[in-house]
Amino acid sequence: MILGIFYLLIAWLLGIYFGRYFFYSSFFSREKKNLFFVIIGFLLIGIILLTWLSYLFSYFFRFTVKPLFYGNLFSIFAALLLVFLREIFSKNKRSGEIFKILKGKNWTFSQNFSSWLPEVCIFLFILLFAISLSFFSFYFKDNKLHIGISVFSDFGPHLAVIRSFSFGKNFPTEYPHFPNGQMRYHFLFYFLVGNLEFLGLRIDWALNLISVLALVSFLILLYQFATLLSGKKIVGFFTILLLCFRSSFAFFTFLEKIRPKSLKELWLKILENTILIGETPHEEWGLWTQKVFANQRHLPLGLAILIFLLMVFFPLFQEMFQKIKEEKNFKRKIFELFNKSSWLIEDWKRAIGSGIILGLLAYWNGTVVISALFILFFLALFSKHRSEFLICALITIFLAFLQSVFFIGFGEKVITPEIYLGFLAREYGTFSLKSWVLYYLELLGVFPILILISLFFLSIDLKILSLAFFAPFIFANTIKLTPDINVNHKLILISVYFLNILVATLLAKFFESPRGVNFCAKLLSWSFGLLLIFLLTITGFVDLITFYNLNKSPHQIIMDTKDPLLIWAKENTSPNDIFLTDIHSLHPILLAGRKIFYGWPYYAWSAGYDTQKHELIMKEIYGGRDIEKIKKLLKENQIKYVVIEESNRYSSYYFLNEEMFSKNFELVYFSEIPEIKIYKVN
């Protein structure tokens, strides 16, 4: 455990030195410096950098018995060497980089506010929210992993990826549910978790600690960003509240469905509810609920980096609008916006550093990278020194391209964009503007209406920013990147998370107390504001109760870490071996760090893999009668072991010729209850 914590501290140190070198003009040269952006942002940057170093060194030592041992050894050494060299060549040797971070009197925890107690309460709420989502849905007890039913679907591939590194040797990296020599899934967050487990952190602590760190970082940075834009702490609070408890009319469709006779009956129905509410397509999956943060543990880290980069470039946006405000002539205002000087580069380091970090994020969360490019594009249109945005984008695209070549090969595509109008509104039938509007009104409730109203009250700079925030939403409703359109929901969520700032700004106006307003007017304003908050958050509160119900016993999947099959596979097979099994989401063999030839197909299909090929091969091997052909298929696909268990014997999906295996292959594992046989392929 100590080694894992030490690893994170080294990452933080590396991030501090990288961050101060590349982002001095954005954070350290300003009159007021926000300490949260520096502390959190540099920690996350360091994690990304050190994880990449660990992965690349581990890949280099992939032919050794324990690649991660050498990967960690050399990556930590490289990080400390870089820090040491930076200290040696620092211009001011009496005050090294790490001391400059905390030096000075201009740090501020919250722009324009002297009171810190409300922020402490908000941050405690954020911490409690993050811990609850993470530790309640996944924990270790009595040698068993308890996985909430609401997160089990995504934890199938995620736990398999984690264990493929901590217990396996997944170099070159493949998808454990679909090993074919390629890695199309953004896996580096789970590589980090696997590495931390390898360094001594128990798997639940390794995953939950990083998940809580990422989610807390994202929410605090979003709070700070909202507060900075509005100059009001209450806007930051409302932004977090709206994110944690989504707006939707799902509560009212739920109300119509159960038709309670009293408030008491309604309350009891809510407390007992175990079905995610909402009538729009696939809402039962929890695409829009807090479950997203419990399922997609890698998403908040990417979002936190996105906000950090927005803050890196935000001074350029502010500089442009300050210039425009200073000009009194309208034509000169327009000229200032489009003149050639607006393209000049002010800080090469800022542009290059941002491009490196965003580019390295591609295999942490590709959706965030796409969203960031669109948001920064719109921000660049109304900023000074636009060439810096261009350099950032070019470096990002180049690094993403290099990663795709490395992980899937030259000429292959990670994504296959095609025009697809309407997102899930298409499931109502042929796309039409009416069905699209009705879909989002039902899905988002009063939120879209309040967005439109807020545009009338916002300052011009916030209106411009709203264009940037809308960009991922527009993209999600026009382009499909993978065979599964449902994955676009994260693009929509990213837009909603930022657009919450606009609605929060509008809500804050109802709770302001300008001079000269009498008590009755204040009471009316507060009452209407509270009503809007109720309409905006009630669905989210029901979602949270449902999430709790779905993840407590007996609604859990329990995996025994002392399962005899898991222990046998870990101790008696090679770390990179491939097993042929029935179609599984999670299996003791996967928890042993091994790979299965054809896992649950949805995971691989939605990531862009050609699942049909593996499906046909699996059926042909299990049901085959020509032993020579079977052996050839096993060898061609590098399958080392064939598993036969109850799910094979009673499958309605394919025929099992069990006798063929018992006669022609060596039985290396047998379990009577449940009856499991594993045959080794010579």
Radius of gyration equals 27 Å
* Distance between the amino and carboxyl termini: 40 Å
DSSP helical segment count:
30
The unreliable regions are 109-113
Main pleated sheet: 5 strands, mixed
Count of extended strands = 12
Subunit arrangement of the protein: single chain
Q: Supply the helix-strand structural class.
A: alpha/beta
The proportion of residues forming helix, as a percent range, comes to 55-70%
The geometry reads as globular
- Beta-strand content: 5-15%
Mean pLDDT: 88
Sheet with the most strands: spatial strand order? 9-8-10-12-11
Structure description:
It is built from 30 helices and twelve strands. 62% of the residues lie in helices and 6% in strands. The chain has 682 residues and is an alpha/beta fold. Helix 3 runs antiparallel to helix 9. The relative contact order is 0.11. The radius of gyration is 27 Å and the shape is globular. Helix 25 links the parallel strand 8 and strand 9. It has a five-stranded mixed β-sheet with strand order 9-8-10-12-11. A three-stranded antiparallel β-sheet has the order 3-4-7.
How would you sum up this structure in a few lines?
This protein is α/β, with parallel strands linked by helices. It has 30 helices and twelve strands. The chain has a five-stranded mixed beta sheet.
Task: Describe the secondary structure blueprint for this structure.
Layout: H1 2-22, H2 24-27, E1 33-34, H3 35-60, H4 67-88, H5 97-102, E2 107-108, H6 117-137, E3 138-141, E4 144-148, H7 152-166, H8 188-198, H9 203-230, H10 233-244, H11 250-258, H12 263-272, H13 291-295, H14 299-326, H15 330-338, H16 348-360, H17 366-381, H18 386-408, E5 418-419, H19 433-444, H20 447-454, H21 460-476, E6 479-480, H22 489-510, H23 519-551, E7 556-560, H24 564-572, E8 578-580, H25 588-591, E9 595-596, H26 601-606, H27 611-623, H28 627-636, E10 639-644, H29 646-649, H30 658-664, E11 666-671, E12 676-680
